[in-house]
Amino acid sequence: MAKSSADDDELRRACEAAIEGTKQKIVMSIRVAKSRGIWGKSGKLGRQMAKPRVLALSTKSKGQRIKAFLRVMKYSTGGVLEPAKLYKLKHLSKVEVIANDPSGCTFTLGFDNLRSQSVTPPQWTMRNIDDRNRLLLCILNICKDVLGRLPKVVGIDVVEMALWAKENTPSVSTQRNLTDGPVVATVTESDLKVTVEKELVSQAEEEDMEALLGTYVMGIGEAEAFSERLKRELLALEAANVHAILESEPLIDEVLHGLESATNCVDDMDEWLGIFNVKLRHMREDIESIETRNNNLEMQSVNNKALIEELDKLLERLRVPSEYAACLTGGSFDEARMLQNIEACEWLTGALRGLEVPNLDSTYANMRAVREKRAELEKLKSTFVRRASEFLSNYFASLVDFMISDKSYFSQRGQLKRPDHADLRYKCRTYARLLQHLKSLDKNCLGSLRKAYCGSLNLLLRREAREFANELRASTKASRNPTVWLEASTGSGQNVNAADTSTVSEAYAKMLTIFIPLLVDESSFFAHFMCFEVPALVPPGGLVNGNKTGYNDDDANDDDLGIMDIDDNDSKTAELAALNESLQDLLDGIQEDFYAVVDWAYKIDPLRCISMHGITERYLSGQKADAAGFVRLLLGDLESRISMQFSRFVDEACHQIERNERNVRQMGVLSYIPRFATLATRMEQYIQGQSRDLVDQAYTKFVSIMFVTLEKIAQTDPKYADIFLLENYAAFQNSLYDLANVVPTLAKFYHQASEAYEQACTRHISVIIYTQFERLFQFARRIEDLMYTITPEEIPFQLGLSKMDLRKMLKSTLSGVDKSISAMYKKLQKNLTSEELLPSLWDKCKKEFLDKYESFVQLVAKIYHPSENIPTVSEMRELLANL
């Protein structure tokens, strides 16, 4: 048999170490598995995993008494035993082996002092039946010897236990209470067996049985004598019994009579008890009825108390403080009283919200008192909103009227004054929180307030813009440049030394620098002040156009908002649409003063539209992310206005160009060719930023009209058309050579003029050459035409193309070739007004004549063979060079 853990000395020492200092002695220690739950039919624990534990039986001597304990040990993290639970064996009332455990190794120990008897006691599982029997026998012996009693044993066969104790003689240490004190004894097999048998026959009964058996002599040889003796004694006993029965009849009668009397008494008592039972049942029913009514009264009392508390809370919520009611219905809106007004608004908002269903139980919502109180609060709200709206509308108008009445707020003669709204905004911010509460109370009331604010501030902004623009124009000194640049009747050098008009552009830039940041700030402040739910786009101290905002008042670092355009955020389209509509009311009309500055600048110098367009475009590109929508619209309208004025100037200039064709005769270079070069030079000086496209469009329109007009004028006199065209195209190239190198648009027209010049030169030179050598080249043309239909050998036999005809033609044409060439030079020089073009034209003419003559010589050599004596190409080139 394997060694039991009960014989493990090392385990015993570990247990003794765990309880060191308690003065207890370990009697027995054994390893077990602890589980909690019930055994199912499958024989497995259902709910919890088994945990390793050690059960140790210990005793402690206290005088003449010995106390016995059952200790539960568990293993700590380091594998060291430590006490977990302690049970006193004097409270052990039951030992039960679990019947559903097939192995029979699981049992429970029931103690009568546990606080919660409803909790299932832990189950202890041994490794085998031997360990279970050792532990249970040790527990039973200790209870018998130390406590003098045994617990109830369930599920264990006592005979089987006795047999096992006989076969196994383990030594188990225990303590016995001897006369001279507790000593440690060894319990052997016989002790264990006796302990079990004592449960079957007591010591006194055993002694009586031995004495009774000792009176008989049980010899094998005396069986018949013993039998006879027993028969005689039996007969004697029966006779004695019959006699006794006969003698005891009076006694029996007396007993029967007593029994009958007792039966009657019992019947009477039963009847009384029945009566008492009925009365007690009625009393019990009365008591139950009284208890039921009492419970109902107690429940009603509790409910009434809770109801009173709830009603007190509801009444507290429905109560309107007198100070708030007075403030809401008739209080002042002075700055000193704003704190009280804000507190009253906060209370009113909270009170209205508290009477709504999410914050108020739905059962209270339909109560008449709640409905009446809600109506009363709504009346207070409407009264306060109406009073506050009227006050703020009048307040905004009074602020603006006060500023308008004071002329020192605006620009005056000789003094440009930057608008300053710091004081206005400071006063408005006093009522910012009031507006927020008005929005939470009644969002619809903000519409009229926004219109009142926009209407009042619009008057101020328009007055400031008008005074500033008037003084700006009055203080700007600039000579007016004529708008007629390309008129045919004026001199060509009229606009070369035009006056400096840069102050006009500077004035326009100053207007934008002052008012665009102001309008952006006003738009942002308006959106923030009037509680528009839009995202903040301009951070505090933000930049406009890459520079510090030009409107640096005291609140430059406040949390003003930039307003996003409507299309930037679809989720708040309605709010942004309302904002931009309000901004239209706020800033509408101020554009007229900007238009006045633009028109004034146009009248002084139309070309300044280019620089103004660049300035506006720079502001517009800088405002795309951080300006109010209306400011971008204003800048866009300004840009359109400037473009319109400049287009007007371009159209007028184009009309001036077209008027040139009405003249009867045009000779030489037209006047608008050099003037356009001067105009283009001045326009390039004015270009700023994005105005390049505007100027290029003007160039395109100017040059297109110039070229079309040039062609029309040339067609009026076809005889001199080529000379007229080549002179003007040459003048165009000469005047725009430098600009064409840096302006791509002008470079394109420069190349177009160059091609037209080459074509005019070619046509004019061809006419001069054919005029002087008509017979020579006409003869060559007839030969070329015939070569398409007949062979070269047949051409000399054609009429008018024989060798004799060739000789006559050469003699008449080349006999005075030097004179013909001189006449060609004079013809070229005769109608040319630009003498500087003559050398280049004469070179082109000589080259063209030599090319044609070389073609003629090759043609003659091919058809008539080199038998004819005609000047060679080298001779002709040398002749041209000597002239």
Note down, in words, how this protein is organized:
This protein is of the alpha+beta class and 883 residues long. It has 5 domains: 5-212, PH-domain like (Roll), CATH 2.30.29.90; 323-467, no CATH class; 505-662, no CATH class; 665-771, no CATH class; 773-882, no CATH class. 61% of the residues lie in helices and 9% in strands. It is built from 29 helices and 12 strands. A hairpin with a 2-residue loop joins β2 and β3 (65-75). InterPro entries: Sec3-PIP2_bind, Sec3_C, Sec3_CC. Belongs to the SEC3 family.
Question: What key attributes describe this structure?
Answer:
single chain; 883 residues; alpha+beta; PH-domain like; 5 domains; eight-stranded mixed beta sheet; two-stranded antiparallel ribbon; 29 helices; 12 strands; 61% helix; exocytosis; transport; Sec3_C; Sec3_CC
* Overall 3D form: elongated
Cα(first) to Cα(last) distance is 150 Å
What is the percentage of strand-forming residues?
5-15%
CATH architecture of the largest domain: Roll
Q: Helix/strand/pairing class, anyone?
A: alpha+beta
The number of helices is 29
Count up the domains: 5
Please sum up the structure shown.
With 883 residues, the protein is an alpha+beta fold.
